[in-house]
């Protein structure tokens, strides 16, 4: 029963993470340089939380895990930077859904590279999710209030990077370092902290915005959420069946994200986006049915 409670916590943390990114993106309208500064604080805090978990579990740390974590960190830091930029220019709900749908890529990679079984229903589910993405994006317009071409490009990049992160996780789980889950999270967060600092120093401008208490608070809070989210998900991935965990986690986060974006952030959902969301949820369901 405790694991289903943790599953609910995971869904809530996923939406909190997206909401914090959206709040920062909308309130601060950050440049890429400022986003890296935000990331540095966020991943620094997340690394501390992951380190505590790693030490408490007394996990070992192999060279393989360090190498996998390095590439994973490079992908995820790019994903977070692009996601925040996309939320600045577009809706939180649709941006988050594009990121969640990145699960399509490891779902396709599994049968190709790991010889995992795939059936007709899974293929139908993937096609439904792709169709859902097309409906959710809405009409492309050049006006400020429309879905801009810039946002679509950023959302597609976020989708691909999210999928690559999933593939990187599968690669790590297929190595001898598969049991070093918390160590993997800690090293990845530490690398992302370093990447953010270096990128910030390279891109630093003399007349950049001063770091405000509000930004530090949002970044620190997102780091706490990220650290807890990663730790909870690692526990669940080892305890719950994947056919239960992934559909409920992704479908639940998707529904709650839509609700929060409409109620809290006052985003508008027309019939086309509602239809796309329903099709996407059905696609996730088809993808999760055992072969």
Total count of helical runs of at least 4 residues: 11
Question: What overall geometry do the principal axes of the alpha carbons give?
Answer: globular
Give the N-terminus to C-terminus distance in angstroms.
Answer: 26 Å
Q: Give the number of domains.
A: 1
Radius of gyration: 19 Å
**Helix proportion range:** over 70%
Largest sheet: none
Sheet-strand content, in percent, reads under 5%
The structural class is mainly alpha
What is the overall pLDDT average?
87
Number of strands: 0
Report the uncertain regions: 140-146
One letter per element, helices H and strands E, the order comes to: HHHHHHHHHHH
How would you characterize this protein structure?
This protein has helices at residues 2-28, 32-57, 63-89, 92-100, 104-113, 120-136, 149-173, 181-203, 213-239, 242-263, 271-288. With 291 residues, the chain is an all-alpha fold. The protein has one domain. α6 runs antiparallel to α11 (271-288). The protein is globular.
